[in-house]
Design goal:
172 residues; alpha+beta; five-stranded antiparallel β-sheet; two-stranded antiparallel sheet
Length: 172
Amino acid sequence: MRTINKNCVLVQFVTKKDEDRFLNVIKEKTNTLQVCSPRKRNPNVLLKNLPNEISDHEVLWLLKEQNLELEEEKQLWEETKICFTLKKFKNSWHLVLEMNPTYQKLCLNMNFLRVNWNICKIEDFIAINRCFKCLGYNHKAADCWHLPAYDSFSDHKAIKFVLFQMCWRTQK
């Protein structure tokens, strides 16, 4: 058992019976706790240079309608969802999609997708979380439990430092 976030606890079980017994006890005793099992995350894909005229609500529909190669796997397409927009430019923007792994491989093999008379390049997207406090990975500075990597990151005030003026003529 260990804490994951401020309000979450991870519990590992040796057998399936132990897990079922634990879930039954939690359901019977309290209704304030929420129990969920971990799920696999789907991979993310970066769709580059979408035109600004297209809203994010229309993107999924346009991708499905205009890319006939993707029509075979309709069940997999329904798992696809928009994560966030990455960059916005003068005439275009980038979009990050979360999709099924087999569907992702199919899209990456195509190298591009058609959207509204435009060809948008598609790439694999991997987000790397980096802490700016300890310079570690997989967590943010707000959630950091490590010590700072350098003492120079501590509070700097001019009062704490003593400056000496030295003349090069007086030194031997």
